[in-house]
Automatic annotation (TrEMBL):
Keyword Oxidoreductase: yes
Xref: InterPro entries: NAD(P)_OxRdtase_dom_sf (IPR036812), NADP_OxRdtase_dom (IPR023210)
Protein name: NADP-dependent oxidoreductase domain-containing protein
Pfam family, any one: Aldo_ket_red
Length: 102
């Protein structure tokens, strides 16, 4: 199985037309899984051609999971990684806050 691709520019790289959102991978919905289980999710996604991944610091540890998977793979050259920052979740109050600290 392969995913259809689109060109980013006229002569730009080909990226999958469908991306993989990683919010749930980061336990955003409260289902904590072991790191090995999370990394195991990324392997079949990658094997069928999923190369466009979306993460954010708000998604708890999804970015950490991607980093661990990349360490296992050895490079990130053919992954198109979209990330967002500056929104954090305040667990104590249950609200979102803006914080652009690195």
């Amino acid at each position: 199985m392969s995913l259809p691709t689109r060109s980013l520019e006229r002569n730009g790289p080909q990226v999958p037309a469908v991306g993989v959102g990683l919010m749930s991978l980061g336990n955003m919905h409260g289902f904590a899984s072991a790191l090995d289980d999370k990394v195991a999710f990324l392997e079949p996604a990658y094997s069928i051609g999923a190369r466009s991944w979306d993460t954010a610091d708000l998604y708890f540890d999804s970015d950490h999971t991607v980093r661990e998977w990349v360490k296992k793979l050895g490079n990130l050259n053919n992954i198109f990684l979209a990330t967002k920052f500056a929104i954090q979740y305040d667990v104590a109050t249950g609200t979102q806050i803006t914080c652009s600290n690195p």
